[in-house]
Amino acid sequence: MPLGGLSQAAYHTLATLLLAEPAESGTSMKHFDRPRITAAPLRPIGCREVHSTRPQIVRTIALFCLFCAALLIGGLSGPARAQTAPVDEAKFRAFISALWPDAQRQGVSRATFEAAFAGMKPDASILQVTKKQAEFVKPIWHYVNASVSEQRISRGKSRAQEFAQTLERIEARYGVDRYIVLAVWGMETSYGGFIGKSNVIRSLATLAASGYRGDFFRDELLIALKILQEGHVEPEGMIGSWAGAMGQTQFMPSSFMKHAVDWDGDRHKNIWTSVPDALASTANYLAQHGWIKGWTWGYEVALPQGFSLAGYDPQDYRPFTHWTRQGVARADGDVMPHQGEAALFLPAGKNGPAFLVTRNFQTIKSYNTSTSYALGIALLSDRLAGAGGLRAQWPVKERTLDARQSLEMQKQLVRFGYNIGELDGKIGEKVQGAIRQYQRKAGLTPDGFATVSLLEQMRARR
């Protein structure tokens, strides 16, 4: 939430500049130089400074102001929460009435508009979902093990046989590995077994009327109405998640308009009840987001003894031949490709499984930005294709961060001068990059893995 027009990102930039040590003569201080932030220990009440210099006074005032600002924006108490307002029926109806002119400009008829909202009331349960905060963050191995369960593998192989010809033709048309498409289908809706139970129009209207995430859900609602106008689905059949993700592909309406496909030729892009349409739409989505035909997502690999991580980042793509020269080998014993390039990926740090991932792995992340999700899709696709499971063991005894500790680690990184974006308690790519920078500077192995032991080390460092 802005503070007097100041965004949280601007607030943290101001904090970095105010709390940084003055630059030495002849040096320039830039925000991207990550100036070192040092926090002087607080003195007990009544303990006097013999001399208080002007910079000390300025720093004291700055610290107090930032402390007060942080309290107001919630920076010291927890992740920023989306602002929503309760939606009563009168407000809901007023919102729908005000929506009509924009819907009409999108080509939606009055009959379609009224049919979509007939007898509709806001869904109060949705707003409760938006306010929930995660108290526990599952380690990546919990997520991956659940994603690549024996039940999901068995069900997926059965569905692969059932739709073998369709998957083969879709792969030939879009160039996307059929087992990746199958894995996305399995992860999103259990191979079409559960697509959600919410009326998409009602969900989007409730979120939009409440002001949740600004105009995002209002825009998605207008697109959903256009989908109804084009006759792809009836209002009662437009079913999805509480946030408006629809059908067997879990597309938002905007993604539907860009990527949905009428594969079965019935003139309807039906991702709700037509499996061929859903599978082709998923393949089309991945193809349009950069899937490289003929490439794998990557491989589990074994690193040689003494391999140094100092020169590598997850965005650092090198030819497969480079990795072979460094002694990196495929964990399954097969030969490494002679063409293409990949980056080293350590989702659980130096003590967990290692992977070489191609740019197709990033394409999977376009479907869902979660690294855990993308790895789940990748490993599930391998199992559906008949490959074995992981060779390396997850570091299950490692103490990983809960939600509050994740937020604290973000604050520690800010304290040391690293730009991690919004204080949201999420250990994403930007935070992991800052962790690697911190680890390098502290003389630690730069694997980017957020653990309790690393947090304790940060707490102790001044």
Structure description:
- With 462 residues, this protein is mostly helical.
- It folds into 4 domains: 8-73, no CATH class; 89-132 and 196-246, Helicase, Ruva Protein, domain 3 (Orthogonal Bundle), CATH 1.10.8.350; 138-194 and 262-395, Lysozyme, CATH 1.10.530.10; 403-460, no CATH class.
- The chain contains 19 helices and 7 strands.
- The strands form 2 sheets. The chain has a 5-stranded antiparallel sheet.
- Helix 15 crosses helix 16 (371-384) and helix 17 (403-415) runs parallel beside helix 19.
- The longest helix is centred in the N-terminal third of the chain and has 20 residues, at 54-73.
- The chain is globular.
- The chain starts with 7 loop residues before the first helix and ends with a helix.
